Each structure stands twice: as structure tokens, then as C-alpha cells.
Amino acid sequence: MTSDAIASAFQAACLAELDALKPGNVHRHAESVEPAVSDFERSAAAAAPAISAQGLTVGQRIEEAVRATRAAVSHNTNLGIVLLAAPLAQAALTATNGSLRLSLAEVLAALTVDDARCAYRAIRMAEPGGLGNAPEHDVATDPSTTLLDAMRAAATRDRIAWNYANGFVDIFDLGLNWREGGIIRWGDVPSVATYIYLGFLAHVPDTLIERKFGPHVAAEVLDEARPIESGLAQCHDPKEMMRPLIAFDASLRERGLNPGTSADLTVATLFAGTLAGA
Questions:
Q1: Domains (range + CATH), the chain
Q2: What DSSP string describes 107-142?
Q3: Whose CA is closest to 148, among 87, 206, 208?
Q4: Res. 87 pLDDT band, cuts 50 70 90
Q5: Between 190-203 and 215-234, two packed helices, what is the crossing angle to 10 degrees?
């Protein structure tokens, strides 16, 4: 797959996620959201060249994409997206067997200490909220292990790290199935991204909420999302669910709860869907 096609797929995934009504997260349907939707649009455009460039390692893609994003918007808008997208892009660029998933497994197994150093610098540059300190392989230190081993060590407290350690199972076994089901049911519409997002929110505790507010709050949000996700899955017209979606969105915002990890997984699913289809 060409670099231009991967860059286009990355930007399209980022913009499609913004078009979807995602309760608690940034989207075009919300009023007076900070950060603004335009910040995420600029971030997608800024990060795309590094995500898709020929000749970079996974770690270099991550670091360069975050550096470009910081120059464009001066705050963290897409660290999780970049962490998930970089190995997917690498897999699409290097695939020789026609399978994005098999190629990704090879990419993850080949991650190096240098990849970890680049990723750590990117994380420090992005300054994500709720990061805290880690008992081992803390990002404030210089890593001495591969990026994959560092992600394995963080897997119990971060779902993006968990996906590195588990071959992006959430994307391939959950997200892409929700994407396919939504497209079959409604066509390629923004509600498909809402469906993917709610799927993650209803089945996987959001680790950004968990780190900031604790596992009990993350579990509460998961329980609240389940009936809405179920209702959307069963409706013939997504507009039927606008009222409960808007109400859930308002409720999460009032409590300051942003399911950012679920949004990151949604973008990665949309990106992987295009890459796998190509």
C-alpha cells in the first residue's frame, strides 16, 4: 500500500470519528467543546505524513507524528491514536502476505529498544493526562527494553498497551466486526463510528477514565453504555437513538468523564478497516 493511500486513510479515519456522536468525547455535534474539533482536524493533517512515510521505524513514526502535532496545536490531541496507528501503518507498508493482521504481528515482534526510546520521548512531549508513575519502564526514564516489552508491562493499566501485547485483538476481533455489522445495517454513515465507540465503551473499561477516576467509575460508565449500545445495535435507523445518545453525552460531560481510550480504539478500527480492505 502506498504512503499517500495510508496518509489518506489515516486522515479519513480521524475525521470520520469526529463526525460521529461519541458520548463524552470530542465530536461535531457537541457545543463549546474543548479542545475544539478544529484542533483534532489540524492534528490529523499534521500527523499523517509521519504515520505514512516510507523508511521510518514504528518509534520514529510515533515521535515524528507527535512532534508535528505539537507544532500544529501545542497540546495533546492524538497520542493514543498515533500509538495505535503507527504499527498499523508499518504493517500496511511492509505487508507481503496480503494479511494486515499477520503483517502487524511481525511488526510488533520486531519492535526494538530504539522504538521504545522514540515512543517514550513522544509520550513525554505529548504530556497526556492521568499518566502517573509506573513501577517499571516508567516513561520518565530512558527505556532499556523493547517497545513491545514496555507495553506488556503497562498492559494492566492501559488498553493501548494491552493491544500491543495482544496483537491488537480489540481492533481485529471486536472493532472490525462492529464496523462490518454497522455498515451492513445502515451503510457507510457516521453512526457506524458511534456504534464502534459504544461497543468499546460497553464492553471494555475505558482506561483513561480508570486512570483518572478509578476502576469503579470506569465500570459505572461501562454499565451505563450497555443499554445504549444495545439499543443502537437493534435499531433500523440510527436517528432513533439520538435522544439517549445526547443525554448520555451530556451526563458524561457534566461529570468530566471523557472516554478517550474508546475514541482512540475507534479511530484505529476505522483506519485498520481501510488498510485491510485495500
A1: 1-278 (1.10.4200.10)
A2: HHHT--HHHHHHHHHHHHHH--TT----SSS-TTS-
A3: 87
A4: very high
A5: 140
Owner of C-alpha cell 506488556:
152
Task: Give the whole-angstrom CA distance, residue 105 versus residue 164.
Answer: 9
Question: Is-above-0.90 flag for pTM?
Answer: yes
Q: What is the pLDDT of residues 103-128, one digit of tens each?
A: 999 999 999 999 999 999 999 999 88
Give the three cell numbers for residue 62. Answer: 510515533
What DSSP line would sit under 23-83, residue for residue?
Answer: TTS--TTSSS-SS-HHHHHHHHHHHHHHHH-TT--HHHHHHHHHHHHHHHHSS-S-HHHHH
Contact 175, 200 (CB under 8 A): yes
The confidence score (pLDDT) of residue 137 equals 46
Among 256, 251, 266, 154, CA closest to 203: 266
